Amino acid sequence: MSLDNKVAIVTGAGRGIGEAISRKLAADGATVVCADVNVDDAGRVARDCGQGAWASPLDVAQAEACDRLISAVTDRHKRLDILVNNAGINRDAMLHKMTDEQWHQVIAVDLTGVFFMTRAASRVMRTAGSGRIINISSASWMGNIGQANYSAAKAGVLGLTRTAARELARSQVTVNAICPGFIDTAMTRGIPDQIRDQQVAKIPLGRPGQPADVAAVVAFLASDEAGYITAEVINVGGGYVI
Ligand code: NAI
Question: Superfamily for 7-236?
């Protein structure tokens, strides 16, 4: 499967799953725009990707910044084939202790950020009559202790995915979501050892996922070969959700 001549934007590309997605899409031939609030990290990833990759600062929670990035990409490349909404944060707390700020921060990045980027990209993709939008949700969408904000945002992403898939199907734009389980990144390395061990023990395949496990599925969904798949939600969790 080749992504030659395709232009992709990956949000949260500076490390973890977004970094692996960027590297995989570039290895498959795409020109990748690595967007992240941490532009130093994104720049490092873009340099490693080669293949014409470049980095951009982006806070997905800022609508104007999302619009500006889409304009910059289409001005420069005259096309946008693939959008991967990967940027995400967690601010875990039990519901009764969760602050307004923790709630709003996570909703702003993990849900509203996906809306801002999808809205801006969909304008270009509708006109082009093609495109791939891939949203990184989470197995936590089903509910997870300490993650009321994150679960709500990630469940919201699935509703947004399915609505966007319906609306954009007539333009041959596919919209799908991936729900990673427990993936070995900075996000999960912050979890206390005891809880981490409990989580890993629940994985039938017996190990945490690697960012590359998620990236491989993104690359498939981004390919021409996946053109008849839309509105799907794919678990990448080693059997975590059965
Ligand atoms: P990470 O914390 O290692 O990396 C997230 C990246 O997003 C960072 O480079 C960060 O600078 C960037 N970012 C944060 N806020 C941003 C914003 N407002 N605008 C643009 N970029 C921003 O996280 P990880 O583990 O790589 O997660 C990536 C995605 O996968 C997230 O959406 C996360 O919710 C999701 N996920 C992760 C799982 C895991 O086990 N690590 C499991 C399920 C889902």
Answer: NAD(P)-binding Rossmann-like Domain (3.40.50.720)
